[in-house]
Amino acid sequence: MTSDHDGRGIPEQRPESRREPRRTWDFFSVPAPVKRVFDCFPLLTYPPNDLPQCTWPTRRGNRLFVFSDAAGAQRGRPSFNPQCLKWQAYLKFIGIEFELVPSNNHASPSGVLPFLLPALPVGTSTPIPLNKMQKWAIEEVHCEEEQQLDLRFEVYLSLLDNRVRNAWLYHLYLNQENFDAVAQRLYVDPSTNNSTVRSILSSQLQQAARDELLKSSSYIDVGALEAEAAESFDALSTLLGDNTHFFDRPNPGLFDASVFAYTHLILDQKMGWRYNRLEKLLSRHENLIKHRERLLKFF
Amino acid sequence: MVLELHVWGPGFSLPSIDAQCLATIAYFSLLVPKGSWTLVASSDPTISPTQELPALKNGSIWVSRFRNIADYLRQYSNGEWDLDGDLTALEKADSVAFSSFVESRAQVLIDLSLYVTSGNYYNSTSPAYGSILQWPNQWVLPPQLHAAAKARTESLGLSSLDLEAVREQQKREHSTAVTAGRIPQNFIRRPRDTVSSLLGKTPQQHQFRLDALTGDLFGPLEELLGDKTHLLSERGPSSLDCLAVGYLSLALVPELPHAWLRDLMLRKAPRLSQFVERLRRELYGTVNVSDAFANGGNSPLPWRAPERARLATIGSTLLNSLADATPILKDIRMNNRLRETAESADSGLSELESRSLSAYAQAQGRDTLLSIATVVGGLTALAGYMVHVGAFSPQDVGEHKHDEHEASETTIPES
Description:
The structure holds 2 protein chains of 2 kinds.
Chain A (H helix, E strand, L loop, with lengths): L3 H6 L5 H14 L3 H8 L22 E5 L3 H5 L7 H12 L4 E5 L12 E3 L15 H9 L10 H23 L1 H13 L6 H22 L5 H19 L13 H14 L9 H6 L3 H11 L3
Parallel strand pairs in A: 1-2
Antiparallel strand pairs in A: 1-3
Chain B lengths: L2 E4 L12 H13 L5 E4 L14 E4 L2 E4 L1 H11 L12 H28 L1 H15 L4 H17 L9 H17 L15 H11 L1 H19 L13 H14 L7 H9 L1 H15 L4 H5 L9 E2 L6 H15 L1 H17 L7 H39 L10 H11 L5
Parallel strand pairs in B: 1-2, 2-5
Antiparallel strand pairs in B: 1-3, 3-4
């Protein structure tokens, strides 16, 4: 009776001790129907994906990766992202030849567009990220570093990088009408056809814009954002004056490209803005509009 | 009507611990005659409807932020109280551009110096807040401000000024090494960095980066100042001077354990440093924390003691911070706030915008409720299923006896 052998042999004599372990086992184990469902997985194992087809294998030039659509990139149209357009315009102004490749942030080694794959030296595949692009361009064509020429360069640039950019962020992402009509079409729809993923991407984009604006203030004051953008346009217009280019330079440069990146996209009818307060603010300044029209001829 | 200017309270012998507040105080003391304004160190952003300081209160009207307050003063006085009234067009443009430049660049450096550099934050900034805040705000607000400053400076990649971030990084590396199995557990020595050795090391590591950052800010300002008495013109101070003295005195004046910002400023911009020092002595004097809480006193600034917090305010602060720390409640509260802002008449939004914004907030609110309902539904379904398969039964005790009888029968086939 007391030996192990007997105990195992005649289980019905110890019903109490048999019962307890079974109850705990039940509680912690996966219920059988659920286990059966999980046993079915993976339903199907797909063969590994092919590497992405490189659509530009034969080109030998510099390749600039920007936010763009395929048709626009082929014809070298301006990108719809201000940061990308700034560098696209700058490289064009100083006379560097390049191909546009439509891309997105996930493709970039630094996580932001634009970046550039240089043609030379042959065989290299080291991309040039955003923060090294100007240095690379200067070494390429031996133009001057414009920041050094005028103390106001960096100062007025801060208007574009902060005030105009904040107004732009609100305007594009947080104004729901514009978001549905413009940002959704340009940034969200090309990435996927799945409507769930689309709605998640949209809310992530909007949240990112909101977080960015809330970094500098505790709430988003649309009136203040637009007033600051208006002030900035006033100041930029005064800085340009009657000159053809900013800082009275004979050729357009980095600062012109930075201004053009915003003025062009704000004034561009093809963007399909639904609510365009920035355009009203900008159109008070004849010289900024003319400046944009002159530079648009490069494209 | 006496204008009330509500600000963050004094710290580091300056009348406020916040740069925007300092700039606004400078603007007022240059422009508004004594007797028509009072300065209240309320140090509680919730008193203003926009949850921001500095905030100007005139009767029932609240205006916040330096730029908006300056605009309001001009309208209020029919153009009389306006520091930028006689600037030329070019000076005006410069004023706008340099203001944006100072606000963006200097704020980052102040964040780095006062908040992100751990030694400075725990030894100076946090105690300074402690002496001006009332309970329970002194436990609630400084961590929030600390986190906000860290978020603003994240992109600069200078996190090793921040001891907490350094320690987290070390812990991560440590656990990666362990999980990778490269080092046997017993051989790993805990990284034994004392606080002082870390602090001694970091400033040098980042010397180049900080050098560049400070040079970018001080260079153009030093050049703009030149030999003039004020930044823009010889004729007198402008709003840019107020902003500059507000932001830069927080770089220059505080006595900190790691005074890298002051050292760099004195070295890179000696004339600018003198200018800021002169202007801040003229405008602020030296402020003790006690000045702000005693009416009048012998301070050059028109202090008025803030009201003691009432029990209701304290309760609501506690409740708010608790609610904001609870995951789902936080979302709901945020949406409600957004809707209230959108629907309030003075939000500065056009009708269309406020309608779309409030519709958005409502939709977000519905989303949150829907997700709560989904989770609750899912949990109920799971519990129901478990009861159904008998993983646990509600009448476990009652069935016990019955089970025992059956057990003898069911266990037989197993042997």
